[in-house]
Design a protein that fits this description.
The chain is α/β, with parallel strands linked by helices. Helix 10 runs parallel beside helix 11. The protein is globular and about 60 Å long. Helix content is about 30%, strand content about 25%. The chain has 3 domains: about 90 residues, Rossmann fold; about 210 residues, UDP-N-acetylmuramoyl-L-alanine:D-glutamate ligase; about 150 residues, Mur ligase, C-terminal domain (Protein-Tyrosine Phosphatase, Chain A).
């Protein structure tokens, strides 16, 4: 399809030291974190977005950053010195068009991060299909607790820090390397902007079906990142994802591996959930055996901890200090986060929206609560989960729950039925396998259903990469649960 918009004029040169920075689509976790960095560094920061929910709305409000509702030309008055354009923005948006017409300098989020905050720092980049947010938060915590005073920008609210960003004074800056596209004027992956001095690759699978054609296309992006990473920069990669190994091979790089595989450089053994923590044994590159623990449940949290431990060792972090910090890591909000308890019930909020993440979260909760009924509430919201791409994989992943309730496919009318995820079909497969499952498209109806049929002992987990219509807060009230800070 040919665009009806004239090509944008050449991009104005970016100011060396802008005083007023405006961020469009500021409510995205990356953009909100960047806004916080600008604020901490002394810039005047404003932003705009259409719809904003916790935790980012809470963070922005606490920072005193003014957020204008909706996208309008008037949001650019008074005229900012720089506009940072979120990747959700596109031509035709009135704020974008006003920015282009007025000649205000603009850039993307990763460009701004690189130019104003990390160009002169040593960059530790955490990338991969799964575990980026938890692993980057954990790496920042390890560096912080071992005296490194890192800067960081994390795509979620890390419980060990007041905010999910920090300028820091130490040599290292930790950030997530996202494979999603950068902006309407830069369709390449965000992570190609960061030039890592150390790289942690947690795994590679197909995702972002609106951006990538297939798994080969995804692997091509990660391979390019590896090729652009300096030969002197340590690369740590999961040995438990075959496609991650294929990316390393295609890039021609050497890498330090971690995982459960027998030939992994750093290996984990003897994983045991004690109810309040997960204990495991780490076998180091030189064959030593270390006792380790992390508060989070399940193999996915152990994998995150092991990858961070391997990278920390590669960049010279003291081993004992890293293990101690990992044992005291409180996690990230909306990652297997217990948000309410009482009346024999446990309510958990989770970000899982890919079948592998769903399966990992359910397995983790099963290990933490082995004798309890596990009820999953799922909102198919991301651009991939709304599609049929993972139709069969979701049926398999949710088979680990005792009961599953599916909300409506988000913005379902934007997709033809032939391309749209069919939750009734997943329900049919689950019921045939002996699981209890249903679709319940309205959030208020889900709340009513859970209030009516939840029983003492249930572990109820919400899964969505969005706000899920405020269901978490509604269930806390309806089920009369005590909030867990």
């Amino acid at each position: 399809m040919t665009s009806s918009f004239a090509p944008p004029p050449p991009r104005p040169e970016l100011p060396a030291s802008p005083r007023h920075v405006h961020l469009t689509a500021i409510a995205g976790v990356g953009m909100a974190s960047l806004a916080g960095l600008f604020r901490e560094a002394g810039y005047h920061v404003t932003g705009s977005d259409a719809g904003i929910y916790p935790p980012m709305s809470t963070i922005l409000a606490s920072l005193g950053i003014s957020v204008m509702e909706g996208f309008r030309a008037e949001n650019l008055s008074p005229r900012p010195d720089l506009v940072v354009v979120g990747n959700a923005m596109s031509r035709g948006n009135p704020e974008v068009e006003a920015m282009l017409e007025s000649g205000i300098p603009y850039c993307s989020m990763p460009e701004a991060l690189m130019r104003f905050f990390i160009d002169a720092r040593r960059r530790a980049v955490v990338t991969g299909t799964h575990g980026k947010t938890t692993s980057s938060a954990l790496l920042a915590w390890v560096l912080h607790e071992t005296g490194g005073d890192p800067g960081f920008m994390i795509g979620g609210a890390a419980k060990n820090f007041p905010y999910n960003f920090r300028v820091g004074t130490g040599p290292w800056f930790v950030t997530e390397g996202d494979e999603y596209d950068t902006a309407f004027f830069d369709k390449g992956p965000k992570f190609l902007h960061y030039a890592p001095d150390a790289l942690l690759l947690t795994g590679v699978e197909f995702d972002h079906a609106d951006i990538y054609r297939d798994l080969a296309h995804v692997k091509q992006a990660f391979t390019e990142l590896l090729r652009r990473t300096a030969a002197t920069s340590p690369v740590v990669v999961s040995a438990d994802f075959p496609e991650a190994g294929a990316v390393i091979a295609a890039s021609g790089r050497d890498a330090i591996t971690f995982g459960t595989a027998a030939d992994a450089s750093w290996r984990v053994e003897s994983v045991q959930d004690t109810g309040d923590a997960t204990r495991f044994t780490v076998v180091t590159r030189d064959g030593r055996r270390l006792d380790a623990r992390c508060p989070g449940p399940g193999a996915m949290n152990v994998a995150n901890a092991l990858g961070v431990l391997a990278l920390a060792a590669a960049i010279g972090v003291p081993e004992a200090g890293a293990l101690d910090a990992i044992a005291r890591f409180r996690g990230v909000r909306r990652r297997q986060e217990v948000i309410g308890a009482g009346r024999g019930l446990v309510l958990i909020d989770d970000f899982a929206h890919h079948p592998t993440a769903v399966a990992g979260t359910l397995a983790a909760l099963r290990s933490r609560y082995p004798e309890r009924r596990l009820w999953a509430l799922f909102e198919p919201r991301s651009n991939t989960t709304r599609r049929k791409v993972f139709q069969e994989a979701f049926a398999t992943a949710f088979g680990a729950a005792d009961r599953v309730t599916f909300a409506a496919v988000h913005r379902r009318d934007e997709l033809p039925e032939s391309e749209r995820l069919s939750t009734p079909e997943i329900v049919r497969v689950l019921v045939a396998a002996g699981r209890r499952a249903e679709t319940c498209e309205q959030v208020d109806d889900i709340c009513t259903l859970v209030a009516r049929e939840a029983r003492a002992g249930d572990v109820i987990v919400l899964m969505s990469n969005g706000g899920f219509g405020g269901l978490a807060a509604k269930l806390l009230v309806t089920l009369e649960l005590d909030p867990v800070p």
